[in-house]
């Protein structure tokens, strides 16, 4: 099972995650997020050695130019679209992309069918006033009766206390953000280590 640590904006934490063998590291580009990366940090990623870790850039309703800035300057990024983007918008960059489905109820999951081009679908907790990073878990029992044909990524409020239960749903990847923070937007190496240890013992 793969692991993504999302919302990284610090080189030391990034280095630690890559050396620890985290599969994906997520960088938030959305203006409204407290975890948005700085221009200086973005510039530092251009020559960063990710080892075997893949960088994922998270956008919320971006312009084409915003996305192209990443695809031009970063080698083989994965694009994660977290807003109201349609499949045709997401696939125009000829790059691997993930699409976020914000889950409120069983009906929300029907949106999965709208993104045939996505390399993976990220299931996140719906919030009326934010596009993500809520730190809240959605009702995982909604996943019991649906057939998830494509790779699915489980996100939303996952931490060391519930990650075993998250893994029992057999997602392709688990996405952890606020669950490895000691305070808002500040990642903690000890909490990341804890998550890795629990997952590897599964």
What does this structure look like?
With 202 residues, this protein is of the alpha/beta class. The chain has a single domain, classed as TIM Barrel (Alpha-Beta Barrel). It has helices spanning 11-19, 39-45, 64-73, 87-91, 163-168, 189-200; strands at 2-6, 24-28, 54-59, 78-81, 97-103, 120-125, 152-154, 173-176, 181-183, 186-187. The strands form two sheets. It has an eight-stranded parallel barrel. A two-stranded antiparallel sheet has the order 9-10. A hairpin with a 2-residue loop joins strand 9 (181-183) and strand 10. It is globular, with a radius of gyration of 16 Å. The N and C termini lie close together (9 Å).
Keywords:
single chain, 202 residues, alpha/beta, TIM Barrel, eight-stranded parallel β-barrel, two-stranded antiparallel sheet, 10 strands, 24% helix, 22% strand, globular
Helix content: 10-25%
Q: H/E order of the elements?
A: EHEHEHEHEEEHEEEH
The value of Rg in angstroms is: 16 Å
The CATH topology assignment is TIM Barrel
Low-confidence stretches: none
Tell me the strand order in the biggest sheet: 1-2-3-4-5-6-7-8
Domain unit count:
1
Give me the number of helical elements: 6
CATH structural architecture:
Alpha-Beta Barrel
Major sheet description = 8 strands, parallel, barrel
What is the strand tally?
A: 10
Strand content: 15-25%
Return the CATH class.
Alpha Beta
How would you classify the helix and strand content by structural class? Answer: alpha/beta
How far apart are the termini? 9 Å
For the residues shown, what is the average pLDDT? 92
Bulk shape: globular
Task: Name the CATH superfamily classification.
Answer: Aldolase class I
């Amino acid at each position: 099972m793969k692991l993504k640590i999302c919302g990284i904006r610090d080189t030391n934490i990034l280095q630690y995650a890559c050396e620890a063998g985290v599969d994906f590291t997520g960088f938030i580009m959305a203006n409204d997020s407290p975890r948005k990366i700085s221009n200086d940090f973005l510039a530092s990623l251009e020559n960063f050695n990710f080892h075997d870790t893949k960088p994922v850039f998270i956008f919320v309703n971006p312009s084409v130019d915003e996305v192209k800035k990443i695809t031009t300057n970063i080698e083989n990024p994965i694009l994660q679209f977290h807003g109201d983007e349609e499949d045709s918008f997401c696939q125009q960059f000829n790059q691997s992309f993930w699409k976020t489905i914000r889950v409120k109820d069983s009906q929300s999951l029907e949106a999965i069918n709208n993104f045939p081009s996505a390399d993976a679908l990220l299931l996140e907790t719906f919030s009326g006033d934010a596009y993500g990073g809520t730190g809240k878990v959605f009702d995982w029992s909604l996943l019991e009766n649906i057939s998830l044909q494509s790779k699915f990524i489980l996100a939303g409020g996952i931490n060391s206390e519930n990650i075993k239960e998250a893994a029992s749903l057999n997602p392709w990847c688990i996405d952890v953000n606020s669950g490895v923070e000691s305070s808002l937007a500040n990642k903690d190496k000890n909490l990341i280590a804890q998550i890795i240890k629990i997952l590897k013992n599964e």
